[in-house]
User: What shape does this take?
Amino acid sequence: MSSIWIMLIGLAIVAFGYFVYSKYLASKVFQLDEEFVTPAHEFNDGVDHVPTNKLILWGHHFTSVAGAAPIVGPAVAIIWGWLPAFLWVTLGTIFFAGMHDMGALWASQRNKGRSIGSLASRYIGKRGSYLFLVVIFLVLLMVVTAFAVVITGLFISTPSSVIPAWGAIVVAILVGISIYRLRLPLLPVTVVGVVALYALIVVGDKVPVVLPENFMGIGPHAFWIIALFVYGAIASTLPVWLLLQPRDYINGVQLFIGLILLYGSVLIGSILSTDATKVVAPMINSNVPEGTPSLIPLLFVTIACGAISGFHGIVSSGTSSKQLDKETDARFVGYFGAVGEGLLSLGTILAVAGGFGTLARWEEIYSEYGAGGVNAFVEGGGNLMEQGIGLPASLSATVLATMAVLFAATTMDTGMRLMRFVIQEAAQTVNITVNKYVATAIVFLLGMGMTFSQGLSGEGGLRIWPLFGTSNQLLASLTLSIIAVVLIRKRRNPLPAILPLAFVFIMAFWAAINQASGFLNPDNPDYLLLVVDIIIIISSIWVAIEAIMAMRRAAAELPEEADADITYYETEKVS
Assistant: This one.
């Protein structure tokens, strides 16, 4: 079987989602209003609240939510076979992720651009909101620390990605200045920016940067991790127009070019009947390695980004809602942002299902559960590009590794900015004002402390990562519960939120319980992860109960006419 059929069917499903289902959500469920004054205009400060062209905002939103997760998740989950991963990615994108991302963006900007944790206080109650913030903060801490380790690993395994990854920062700043200060047209700036980025990729392929084992008194792992946290701290406090927006926008354009190359390689390779486009992975793997957990419920937490992810709701309500120019842009930014991530996950499935040439090579890579990941994507995708469009293997690997690094880096710096917002909002609940520099310093110290908690290699950054899948999906279900409450209060159809909510919560909760029992394994107990897992489980149950009660209250109350409770929220934004 050729990969072309997986690609064509997947593209058709995703196209239906955007051109049909998202239109229904925008017009009938959320009833997006072009005349509504968004928080970007109401609180425009040139730093966090900035009205933004929807193309640029889409780039920021998409690359912030993408990171390495839509690559890692499918590249690991294909151990159960390509069909389950394919179905969850495509159907999850159009019915789960699109609704979740656009809904969180809509609910936030209808409430002064407040984060989803803050919205929990209004729509569910203060008790639930405190626990909601705990889950959000843990998810963000996992993302920031783990991605620092992932990026560092890519810098070391693919040193040709170092120059384009850091050079992209300079390109982004120049793009931001060109658009917002020099007022140059978007199209030529985009073309020049993308050309510059790909020129850096070519340079990086020719001039790989390999650090010595003892660099500035520390090893390469420690150096890159420190450099990434310093960058993230600086980036999280800069005005969004100067670095965050243009960097993410250029990365988004770069991603679509990368996807065109990847999908084009599948198309041309299928025409040429090359071995690289032959699907060698089993449709459903009945011979999984020993120790591999059950497909259900683990599939639905292994693949989060690319199907549905609670982290997206944090980004939608944390940064994107503060930059939305028109409410109607929420469909393009939120739903199409989810579509972009689904396409990346679909591309990953194509790479790891048909990029290895033989079943023996595929089984060699997937010899144990948890194998695969970014390296499998880079190898499989590189083979596809080399045999499909003739791009040299080393350059193909550099393109894909750079793509993974840039996405992970944008997610990391956005995550640090969001952690800063959470700290500031949490402080406000107890009438304490924390400025952005103090909040950023707290984030920096917590992140560095966690990452180096097990030595300078940075292994501590992955210490609590095993809990990411379940906590992230529980967060997604809780975000959907808030969206459902808002819809019920406005007498809109809540089923597009409630049905995904029920499914995701059951699967994630089931997986969390399974994990807790695994951490109690007498041969290798892990009490730290057990305690954190129990905290997440209790918090999720509590918030779920509060949400059900809130839905019942909302159904019994008079329809909500006002879009934001001005007496509840301070009219002054978090500074």
